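It is worth pausing here to work through a concrete case rather than discussing structure prediction in the abstract. The textbook approach is simple: state the sequence, then state the predicted structure, then interpret. We follow exactly that order.
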Amino acid sequence: MASTIVVGYDGSESSQRAVDFAVKAASAQGKTIVIAHVLEWSPYSFLTPTELEERHKRRNEELQRADTALLTPLVATLKDSGVEVKTILKYGHIAETLIKIAQAEEASHLVIGRTGHSELETRLFGSVAGSLAQAAPAPVTIVP
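Step two, the predicted structure:
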């Protein structure tokens, strides 16, 4: 049986509630949590090699900032939780990347916070929650 809960975290209040939920579940079930932060990134195939190199440099800087500003402080707050915590930081489409992380980690559960997208935006682009509910390899809990 898989012993990992993957939690999508973006620093929002709802994602913090998702982490809190996952810590309680992991503690009760003896599981590890993987806190995953995904930075949305779309490839631009029409950029010149110089522009692609500059973009790659900015991407690495953004990953470092996200680790320093979001993940490291969060892990520090969970130090005394009694739960093993691991972090993963990736670029990509959020739902697709969380699914890949869940598959790679053989997650038994995914937990995300519900964020406030407008009804129009959700109709046009879909939601991370909706995408995960349809395609995730494990049960998904959406924490309000």
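Step three, interpretation. The radius of gyration is 16 Å. The chain has one domain: 9-110.
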